[in-house]
Every structure is written in C-alpha cells, then in structure tokens.
Design brief:
Keywords: Hydrolase. This protein has 9 helices and 6 strands. The protein has helices at about 65-75, 95-105, 110-115, 135-150, 185-195, 210-215, 220-225, 240-255, 285-299, and strands at about 15-25, 25-35, 45-50, 80-85, 125-135, 155. It is globular.
Length: about 300
C-alpha cells in the first residue's frame, strides 16, 4: 500500500492491516482505522465497503474514501473496518458475497479480538453496535450485508449505490454523452487475455479504471455480475439516481408498519458520482441525513 499510512486523511488515526481469508495462495486484506481516543470501553464499529464497480478499488483507496466517514468515527470513538473482496471479472459475484460473509465470521472471531487487544493501542470492538457504509458498488454490498444480518447490524448507509444490477442500464451501451475516452473494445480485449485462474482483490487507480468505465458505459457490468450466478445537477453518470428512488420506494412499501419502516431515508443532492468524498461531516444536510442511522447505531 506504499505510504497510505501517511495520507493526510489518516492523520492521527492508527492503521492495522491484516488478512481475513486466503483463497489458494491469495490473501484478502482488511484494514482497521482507529481514531485516537482516551475512551477505554468497547468501541462501536463501522463496516465500510469500497466502491469501484466491483472491478477496481481498494479498502484504503483514499481518493474514494469519504472524509465525513472518518470524521464520524472520530466523533463517536468508533473503529472503521474496511475489507477488500475478490473483483470482477476474474471472480464472480457469488464469490464476492462469499468473501464478505467470511469477513463477517472473521470479524466476530477470537483472532480479531486478540489482534486488537495486543496492538500498540489496545482496542475492543462493540459488535452489538455495527453500522455499515459503502459507496457505489460498496453501497450495494453495504445494503446486502445489512439485509443479510438484519438482526445484528444496527443501521445501514449507502451512497449512490448500484442497487439494480439486473437492470438494462448495466447490460446495454449508454446513450448519454459524453462517452468516456475508453474504446468500446476494452472489455473484449481484456477478457481475451485474462487469466481465468487469477484472483484480484485490490486495484489502485488508475489500475483497471478503464475496464470499469468500459463495462459501465458499454453494457458489460451486468453480464460480469450475473456470470456464475451532466445535463441535470442530480444526474449520476455512473449509477442513475432512479435506481435509489425505486429501491427506497420498494423498501418503504415492504417495511410499512414494521419496526424501522419509518427510518428509511433517501437524500438527493446535486453532483455526480463521488460528489461526497470531500464533504465534511458538519454539513447540515449530511448530519440530518445520518441522524436516524447514527441514533439507531449508538442507542
């Protein structure tokens, strides 16, 4: 990871890097980001999944790590744990979900408790107070994770998540302009030379960014996902805002009259994909959006 420990966003935080599983001879990493604190009790947990179209990205890719999430952790003496996972197209979406389920089991293991207890700043996790977060493809994983562990996760957040991977949007070439400066042949060329036995679970920009763009804009991402199993100020060029609106409407319908059904929040803001990366926590709209989730997380 080079000098990520010295990145300005991580100033004052303690970073513990480890591996939570191994597939063949390929280890998959998870990172604990621990804000300084005099608090000595068990600390609430934020499980954060990185974005990148399930094709690129890394748990510590600081260009895509929202500053408000780091500030939220610091404000509430919380520990962020951010796992990597196998990436498309070398791996499949079922394998990605297998990874995050193995991560969940590992997070609750004695291995993690011992790792944190013997670190230079001994830390205990409060695994009864877990909030999930994720951006873009990480938002999809955050939502799926929260649904799979609804009795154990206190609250789930997601920013511009790609929640409808079966939609035609991810299966057909986009008609919007401008198109990315990436040839339409990029996906086919990559697949033709790809080592199908290889495993990738980390990619730092610009690695694989062109592949992600090509898959998104020319319709390959939907197929990748299924294998094996700025005219408008709110126009997201990567994931349409309508997907979030449709998902939230369905969630509210299903949860009507049930506990938590009145706490499904959707906030629309001006800006393209990734607009919130440098947004500080004290922004009024952000605090208002997070209020219900934070209260449920910490109660």
């Amino acid at each position: 990871m080079g000098s990520v420990e010295t990145h300005e966003k991580l100033t004052g935080f303690n970073l513990i890097q480890t591996h939570y599983k191994q597939v063949g001879d390929h280890p998959i990493r998870a990172d604990f980001i621990i804000p300084p604190s005099t608090f000595t009790g068990k600390r609430p947990v934020i499980v954060r999944f990185h974005g990148g179209g399930l094709i690129t990205g890394d748990s510590l890719l600081m260009e895509w790590f929202p500053i408000w999430l780091l500030q939220l952790a610091k404000k509430h003496d919380a520990v962020i744990v951010s796992p990597n996972y196998r990436l498309l197209p070398e791996s499949t979406s079922p394998e990605i979900f297998s990874d995050i389920e193995d991560f969940w089991a590992w997070l609750h293991s004695s291995t993690v408790a011992e790792l944190l207890a013997t670190s230079p700043t001994p830390t205990q996790l409060d695994l009864d107070r877990i909030l999930t977060a994720g951006d873009s493809a990480g938002g999809l994983l955050s939502i799926c994770f929260g649904l799979a562990h609804a009795d154990e996760v206190r609250a789930t957040t997601a920013t511009y998540p790609c929640v409808d991977m079966a939609s035609e949007y991810f299966r057909t070439a986009t008609k919007s302009e401008p198109l990315p400066d990436v040839p339409a042949s990029t996906v086919d060329a990559y697949l033709a030379q790809m080592d199908r036995s290889a495993i990738r679970s980390s990619a730092l920009l610009p690695d694989r960014f062109d592949l992600m763009l090509a898959a998104l804009y020319y319709g390959g991402l939907g197929q990748f996902y299924e294998d094996g199993a700025e005219d408008s100020p709110r126009e997201d060029a990567i994931v349409p805002v309508e997907q979030s609106q449709k998902f939230v409407a369905k969630a509210r319908e299903v949860m009507k009259g049930k506990p938590g059904g009145n706490k499904i929040i959707l906030t629309l803001r001006e800006g393209d994909h990734g607009f919130d990366v440098e947004v500080p926590l004290e922004e009024e709209w952000l605090l208002s959006t997070l209020k219900e989730a934070v209260e449920a997380w910490l109660e």
